[in-house]
Amino acid sequence: MNRSVSLKSLPYFGVLTAACLVCCLTARADDISFEFNTPGVLPSSQGANYASITATPEASAFSASGGILHENTNIFPSDVEAAYITPPIYNAAWDFTLDVSARVISNLSYTNGFGLEGGDATHRREVLIVLENGQVLVRNSSGNNTVIPVDTTGAFHNYRVAAPAGFAAFDLFVDGNLRFSGDPYVLNASNPEFDTVEWGDLSPGGGNGAIDWDYIRLTNHAPTSVPEPGAAALFLGAACTGIIVLRRRRRA
After folding, report:
1. Which has the least CB within 10 A, 24, 181, 187, 214?
2. Greatest CA span in the chain, whole angstroms?
3. What's the per-residue H, E or C state across 113-151?
4. Using one digit for the tens of pLDDT, what is the confidence trace for 188-223?
5. What's the whole-model pTM score?
6. Phi and psi, residue 58, nearest 5°
């Protein structure tokens, strides 16, 4: 059975200024990290936007304590969307890695996990990683899901998505072990996407779940032979031209 969801299901939400972007910068301008070490401080205060087409209050679906972002949409009687999406924070023309540390509490939803979108003017690519009880679903180049057995519950695991410059392929490592290698799903080139990262309950149509998130970390470096401005300069330049508006997305 094809159980897949596109990150295009995320709705229209808000504006972001350069001041918000500075919060999530770490040691280097092209390294970005969302950490949850301050109790009560959610990602919407760190530079990410909260998305919920079902109008689910952020503080009802998420909480931060003990260095962990706790997500629980199982408490709601019907399917909801409760997710975070960053502004454009990486350049798909450069090498990048996305590291996510997470622990599944209870999730049978096929829309709960993390992903990213990026590309160029003619090739919009998507990676979607769904974290379920006892398995990980990886959206492959055909738009279907590859099922990978993983003991997702009990302990935190590191999930690393690594892609070379151009984002024409990617690898998924779980705790340092290569578990999937292939091409990303190619989105409709007529619908331009931003170079964004998303995590949480990504759509109201696939069920609810509960996941603990330890961190979201992105490393994106320009090729050494081609000097280009750092990610921070790209962010601030985009903000200075006006507001960054993330468009309403339809489900695939």
Report:
1. 181
2. 54
3. EEEEEEECCCCEEEEEEEEECCEEEEECCCCCEEEEECC
4. 665 555 688 999 999 888 889 999 999 999 998 876
5. 0.76
6. -55, -45
